[in-house]
Design a protein that fits this description.
The model has no long low-confidence stretch (mean pLDDT 91). It contains five helices and no strands. The chain is mainly alpha-helical and 147 residues long. Helix 1 packs across helix 2 and helix 3 packs antiparallel against helix 4 (95-116).
């Protein structure tokens, strides 16, 4: 697959993340933030169980779990915090404002992960161009947040 196809998939994921945040926030206004977080994870679990065990779509091997370093399991914990933060921030600000802050934070963390090759990923050196891109993103975030 070409690089543009991977980027298109990432863009679709971003679109879905914005929609998901708004849906989750609306749910949290009805049932509560932590309760909404539970419902979202429960629905997700049902979908993944169906895909893996009923439809047999998985290509990996769950028997290899013991080979993963302990810190790779933090994703589940982090996901709970992310969903809570998204639900809470969208409810208190707006979908646009919260998503802008989320994307800026994501980019800053992604650049750190790249710079140091965290979590076993290939190192990608920070350059002035990448730093300028982050600064421009922060300026864009500020502009988007102005009413």
């Amino acid at each position: 697959m070409q690089t543009w196809a991977f980027l298109a998939i990432a863009a679709v994921a971003g679109i879905l993340m914005a929609a998901q945040g708004s849906l989750n926030s609306a749910l949290s206004k009805i049932v509560g933030t932590l309760e909404g977080n539970f419902v979202v994870h429960a629905v997700g679990l049902l979908v993944v169980v169906s895909l893996l065990f009923i439809l047999g779509l998985g290509k990996g091997d769950l028997h290899e779990l013991d080979k993963a370093p302990w810190y790779l399991y933090l994703g589940g914990l982090i996901n709970v915090a992310i969903l809570y933060g998204v639900m809470f921030s969208i409810a208190k600000t707006s979908a646009g404002a919260a998503t802008t802050a989320i994307i800026t934070g994501q980019l800053a963390m992604a650049l750190l992960i790249d710079q140091f090759g965290l979590f076993g990923l290939e190192k990608v050196q920070m350059t002035w161009c990448r730093g300028l891109g982050l600064a421009m993103m922060a300026v864009a975030a500020k502009l988007l947040l102005n009413k």
